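Re: [ENG-882] Designed sequences occasionally contain unexpected residues at chain ends

Forwarding the minimal case from QA. Structure tokens:
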């Protein structure tokens, strides 16, 4: 992996820095977050906000698949409140909050490395959303995506999306998203993939590539700016 040694060095340096610095009061650290945020996470956050802004004029809600602890959810919700405070967009969040559990042969090695990793907390996400004053703009659909998404589309056939953020890591969930949600993207809207073409989570990329091969002509490829992740976006053409 291209950045593996760089990442390891950064995490080791960060641990040493933390040990030297000692305890830091939570809100002081958060309010001064540029002091502490890593370059990779800063780039990812800026890229996500840029993709959101690129779709603000596209009608439809926002969907996030795989939210973990909810940092991207709150980044989207707070940014939406900032850029479009009177707009109607709702952020639909799909997650089991049980971590990675549904593995396919295309997810080679992921079960061994990451089984049950990325468990989140719905209660924590909801409390953070309330604190930020954005809870009314977030709708959580709890359950594995393979079940929760078809249930959602059957229950709410009128919903369309301007932006879908796919951070599932796995083949089956990503394939389900394309089968059920691609048709719900308003033309001009974006499907954003967090881990396409990444060796650590091959299944997400396999599912995306299968879609691109079968549906060429229905999208154009967009490269997110200045970031490793998200790694790909597809703009729906028709």
């Amino acid at each position: 992996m291209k950045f593996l040694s760089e990442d390891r060095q950064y995490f080791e340096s960060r641990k040493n820095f933390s040990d030297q610095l000692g305890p830091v009061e939570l809100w002081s650290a958060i309010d001064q977050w540029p002091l502490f945020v890593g370059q990779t996470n800063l780039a990812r956050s800026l890229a996500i906000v840029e993709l959101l802004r690129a779709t603000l004029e596209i009608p439809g809600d926002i969907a996030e698949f795989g939210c973990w602890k909810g940092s991207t959810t709150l980044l989207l919700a707070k940014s939406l409140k900032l850029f479009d405070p009177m707009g109607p967009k709702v952020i639909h969040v799909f997650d089991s909050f049980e971590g990675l559990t549904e593995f396919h042969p295309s997810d080679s090695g992921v079960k061994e490395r990451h089984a049950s990793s990325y468990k989140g907390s719905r209660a924590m996400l909801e409390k953070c959303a309330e604190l930020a004053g954005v809870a009314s703009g977030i709708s959580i659909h709890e359950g594995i995506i393979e079940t929760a998404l078809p249930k959602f589309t059957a229950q709410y056939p009128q919903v369309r999306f301007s932006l879908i953020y796919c951070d599932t890591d796995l083949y089956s969930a990503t394939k389900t998203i394309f089968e059920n949600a691609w048709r719900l993207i308003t033309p001009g809207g974006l499907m954003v993939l967090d881990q396409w073409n990444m060796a650590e989570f091959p299944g997400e990329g396999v599912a995306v590539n299968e879609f691109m091969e079968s549906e060429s002509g229905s999208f154009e490829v967009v490269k997110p700016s200045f970031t490793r992740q998200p790694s790909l976006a597809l703009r729906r053409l028709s």
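QA comment: On inspection the terminal residues look reasonable. Residues 31 and 102 are 37 Å apart (CA to CA). Proposing we downgrade this to a documentation issue.
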